[in-house]
Amino acid sequence: MISKIIESLKSFSSIKEKAFAFGLFDTSSLIIKIIVITILAVLILPSLMYAFPIVKYVMIVVIIFFVYGIVAKAFGNSLITFIVTGLICYFLVFKYLFLTTSLMVFYFFLGTGLMSVIVWGTSRFSKK
Amino acid sequence: MSYMLANSLILGIFGDFNFILKIFFFLFIITFIRRKITHNVFALILISIATIALIFIYWPLFGGMYFIYVLITMGLSSVVVDFFFVSMDGGKPKDMIAKNRHKGISIMERKDAVHTGLEMQQRKQSMQQLKKFRPF
Question: Which of these, A60, A68, A74, A62, lies nearest to A108 by C-alpha position?
């Protein structure tokens, strides 16, 4: 099944034809295109983490600081801050690191307005 | 077997993130009440009451509300507005210009017709007045 799909993809010469074959530019609705492009954009950093371990360690530090900033706002600089930070970081860093990184990237996209760029860019460049 | 494994995995992730959301909501309650009430004992009493009521009793209601609040705070509404702008078909500039062009021509024609009609009436009236005052 997968080999048939790969063979059919090889028959298309350009990237745009392959995208048309997947229905990215032609038939599918705009919301599906935006969701697909967003997921692809969000998954860039986790794939980089998978390829280069140093990116993973950097992201671990970033997530820990992010969580500490939120917890310290509630409890101040005390022992309970470190306990709660450790509890949250056990789930976010050691259990679901890749999922948390994807959510962090999505949060970054929303916070900086990059989602608007993705939405408008997808609608602009998906037209024939 | 694989279905059960996937089911337990998804439920496990959901349960864990539900717990994390509860912790973040607890932190939100503490931050909110400490910001509003500076008296320490009164703040602690209010925090405990709010925690028991909102997290332990009415969590299915307030958990969903807090999740939506977080998404809106993150700026999801602007994305939705962008999507509405992008997906509206009637608001394309080309279509609007084409529609208004047709209307504009008809309006101009009507204006011209009105103007020419008025001019003709004025000329007729002036001619009649001239005829009236003509001595011979």
Answer: A62
In this complex, is the C-beta atom of B31 within 8 Å of any C-beta atom belonging to chain A? yes
Residues of chain B contacting A31 with CB distance shorter than 8 Å: 83, 87
B79 interfaces chain A, CB cutoff of 8 Å? yes
Partner-chain contact B82 A119, CB within 8 Å: yes
Q: What is the rounded distance in angstroms from the CA atom of residue B48 to the CA atom of residue A53?
A: 43
Kindly report, residue by residue over B41-61, the tens digit of the pLDDT: 899 999 999 999 999 999 999
Q: Do B31 and A73 touch (CB under 8 A)?
A: yes
pLDDT over 70, % of chain A:
77
- Chain A positions contacting chain B at CB under 8 Å are 30-31, 34, 70-71, 73-75, 84, 87-88, 91-92, 95-96, 99, 107, 110-111, 113, 115-116, 119-120, 123
Asked whether residue A27 carries a pLDDT value surpassing 50, the answer given is no
List, as one string, the DSSP characters of B24-71.
HHHHHHHHHHHHH---HHHHHHHHHHHHIIIIIISHHHHHHHHHHHHH
pLDDT above 80 for B8 = no
Inter-CA distances, B13 with A95, B53, B119, Å = 9, 25, 82
- Percent above pLDDT 90 for chain B: 33
Residue A100 has pLDDT above 70, yes or no: yes
Q: Cβ atoms within 10 A of the Cβ of B33, count?
A: 19
Instruction: Check CB contact under 8 Å for B86 and A113.
Output: no
Does pTM surpass 0.80?
Answer: no
Q: Tokens representing A72? A: 């310290």
Average pLDDT over residues B85-100: 61
